[in-house]
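User: Design a sequence. Structure:
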């Protein structure tokens, strides 16, 4: 009987440990993907900048420069999202409602007539 209890406790503890490791790995994987996206955009910017060729005045119809601008904005958003995850804003505080005033007494000057 006691060995069954030990086995059950061991099974529950092992399950909890595995679930915790899985969830921690999932959270870490999300951060890793953000880092990978940032690295990919950085590499894309470097490749597009390497395409500069003074002998080709067309600049690929202006598309290369627009792509560089879009990638710079994307990189800024990726870094902002990582900063948000690392330092989330505090939850909004709710202000208490103002105190309710009791209705005026019927015979007071401010009451109904």
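Assistant: Done.
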């Amino acid at each position: 009987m006691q060995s069954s209890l030990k086995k059950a406790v061991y099974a529950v503890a092992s399950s909890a440990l595995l679930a915790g490791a899985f969830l921690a790995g999932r959270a870490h994987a999300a951060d890793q993907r953000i880092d990978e996206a940032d690295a990919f955009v950085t590499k894309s910017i470097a490749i597009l900048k390497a395409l500069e060729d003074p002998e080709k005045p067309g600049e690929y119809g202006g598309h290369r420069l627009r792509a560089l601008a879009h990638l710079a904005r994307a990189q800024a958003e990726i870094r902002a999202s990582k900063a948000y995850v690392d330092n989330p804003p505090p939850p909004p505080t709710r202000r208490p409602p103002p105190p309710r005033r009791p209705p005026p007494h019927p015979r007071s000057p401010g009451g109904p007539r």
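The longest helix spans residues 2-50. DSSP finds two helices and no strands in the chain.
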